[in-house]
Amino acid sequence: MRAFIFDLDGVLVFTDKYHYLAWKQVADELGIYFDEIINNRLRGVSRMESLEIILERYEGSPLSRSDKEKVAEKKNEIYRKSLAEMTPNDVTEETRNTLIELKNRGYKLAIGSSSKNAKFILERVGLTQYFDAISDGTNITKSKPDPEVYLKAAEFLGEEASECVVVEDAYSGIDAAKSAGMEAIGIGDAYSYDRADYRISLFSELLEI
Ligand code: B16
Ligand code: MG
Fold first, then answer.
1. Three-state secondary structure along the chain?
2. Is residue 115 within 6 Å of ligand 1 at its C-beta?
3. Pocket test for ligand 1, best of 17, 19, 86 (most atoms within 8 A of CB)
4. Is the pTM of this model over 0.90?
5. From ligand 1's centre to the CA of 46, what distance in Å?
6. What pLDDT score does 43 carry?
7. How far does the centroid of ligand 1 lie from the alpha carbon of residue 153, in Å?
């Protein structure tokens, strides 16, 4: 194993609540019921696919593609205001020290995130410098469970897929990693997913695998 590819939201940082508050605001404006249980279904899912899930409960007149894009853009503006408030304190010492130790051991590190805001988040929390490559929502055409985001991360690193291990919190991300021909480590929500090759409850357990 030569490289670790990390999902971002739910693995290195926890922006679920910001996604929730932003989607809640736009859902309320459209008169759509939305709660934290529905929000859980948005984990690892792209912005437009998230909107489609929220619109399952929409009872108004059909929205055009451009209406949907406006709603998604509005949500993103609200979400980015929360992201702008993030600081390095939003990453635990355990996470930061584990990344440093993995680098010291000679592994390459990459990000494999569905988010188009990944680079902004990494800058805000002071993590950018630990990564040799960033594959995110800006360089993919298909989101998880498609393997594209992870295959791109391996390509950016110059490594074979078989030499990479993915760390993920979403079931769809574990499926994406397996389709990419990579080993998958489940954490958080994905701790209970039996397709993961390893399951960890603490980020620092990566040092023991
Ligand atoms: P954005 P990940 C994902 O990030 C989030 O888990 C998911 O909830 C979000 O909808 C998606 O990014 C797109 O985010 O609106 O910022 O482009 O878990 O793949 O790092
Ligand atoms: Mg995630």
1. CCEEEECCECCCECCHHHHHHHHHHHHHHCCCCCCHHHHHCCCCCCHHHHHHHHHCCCCCCCCCHHHHHHHHHHHHHHHHHHHCCCCHHHCCHHHHHHHHHHHHCCCEEEEECCCCCHHHHHHHCCCHHHCCEEECCCCCCCCCCCCHHHHHHHHHHCCCHHHEEEEECCHHHHHHHHHCCCEEEECHHHHHCCCCCEECCCHHHHHHC
2. yes
3. 19
4. yes
5. 6
6. 87
7. 16
